[in-house]
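4.2 Preliminary Data

To establish feasibility before requesting continued support, the project team ran the inverse folding procedure on a target of 310 residues. The structure was first converted into the token representation described in Section 3, and no sequence information of any kind was made available to the design step. The complete token record follows.
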């Protein structure tokens, strides 16, 4: 069996940061990611708010984090879906398709999934016009008319980035105001390719083989507008990836993992960091901060330090 000091589940900014700290402290560390290592950051076209790095692509930032972790000796495995785990005892076990791994402590840093609108037609056109990632799919819609759903920072920033490809971008938002920061709203408002449909919901995606239009319902007068669109990008938030762990650690009302200040969960030796845990602000910097604290919390745990006696 493969034995490590610490297993980190999830290779986004939180998991990679914890990996950097723990490997540098000479712990044997394995990061397991069910998909591509890098997390949501690799979906991000340009990161402009990471201190010290004025603007770089999300992919580049994630690659640099991974490189740094590996250079300190951290083992990183992508495409390792977790089939089972047992975190009850002093030894923790994780099973993937490649086998069973054992460790003294675990950090859950599995982030979240894009929130879906929940329409049947949304499932039908996923990958056939509907996307949750501008960086991945924006290019497919060069010269086309597209919609962006949402009113937060991601929706407005990604709408602006999509204007590099699309002929027009219509932002559909359920409220009469945006939740995004003022600078993101201004950038969208100043962009001549972007128009807005406020206080409205998409009620159906239409098309045959692929998306050709959306039906939009005004929330006030309930009128339906049929808009031609070959692409729809949905940015309405994220759902924490805690489902797998709900029988094991305490979750909040919103299904986020509840942690103490040192990122410890309700189970000794199990820590959580990043977007998966209960907190208000979800950013790369806050995930990185959580990863740091979780790593230091794990070190204390492994060294038998009682956090209540510090
Ligand atoms: C489109 C978009 C744009 C954004 N732009 C910015 C920005 O400009 N600036 C900013 O600060 N923040 C931005 N964010 C938010 C930021 O990306 C997240 O807050 C941050 O990535 C969270 O890091 P994390 O490590 O907690 O989780 P994630 O980044 O979600 O990483 C979690 C990782 O865990 C893996 N995983 C999931 N489930 C499992 C499992 N069961 N087993 C193993 N691995 C698993 C996933 O594959 C993923 O790699 C953006 C987010 C999006 C979606």
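Position-by-position output of the design step:
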């Amino acid at each position: 069996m493969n034995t490590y000091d610490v297993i980190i589940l999830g290779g986004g900014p939180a998991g990679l940061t914890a990996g950097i700290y723990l490997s540098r402290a000479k712990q044997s560390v394995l990061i397991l990611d069910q998909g591509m290592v890098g997390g949501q950051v690799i979906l991000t076209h340009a990161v402009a708010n990471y201190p010290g790095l004025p603007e770089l692509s999300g992919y580049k930032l994630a690659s640099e984090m991974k490189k740094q972790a590996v250079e300190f000796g951290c083992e990183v495995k992508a495409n390792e879906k977790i089939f089972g785990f047992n975190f009850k005892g002093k030894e923790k076990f994780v099973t993937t398709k490649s086998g069973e791994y054992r460790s003294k402590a675990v950090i859950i840093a599995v982030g979240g999934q894009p929130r879906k609108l929940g329409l049947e037609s949304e499932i039908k056109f996923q990958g056939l016009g509907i996307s949750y990632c501008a960086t991945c799919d924006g290019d497919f819609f060069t010269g086309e008319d597209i919609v962006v759903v949402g009113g937060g920072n991601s929706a407005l920033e990604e709408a602006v980035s999509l204007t590099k490809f699309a002929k027009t971008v219509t932002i559909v938002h359920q409220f009469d105001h945006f939740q995004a920061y003022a600078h993101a709203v201004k950038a969208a408002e100043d962009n001549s390719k972007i128009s807005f449909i406020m206080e409205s919901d998409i009620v159906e995606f239409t098309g045959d083989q692929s998306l050709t239009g959306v039906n939009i319902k005004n929330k006030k007068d309930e009128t339906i507008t049929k808009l031609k669109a070959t692409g729809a990008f949905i940015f309405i938030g994220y759902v924490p990836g805690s489902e797998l762990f709900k029988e094991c650690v305490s979750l909040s009302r919103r299904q986020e993992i509840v942690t103490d200040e040192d990122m410890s969960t309700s189970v000794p030796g199990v820590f959580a960091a990043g977007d998966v845990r209960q907190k208000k602000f979800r950013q790369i910097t806050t995930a990185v901060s959580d990863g740091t604290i979780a790593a230091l919390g794990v070190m204390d745990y492994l060294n038998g330090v009682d956090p209540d006696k510090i």
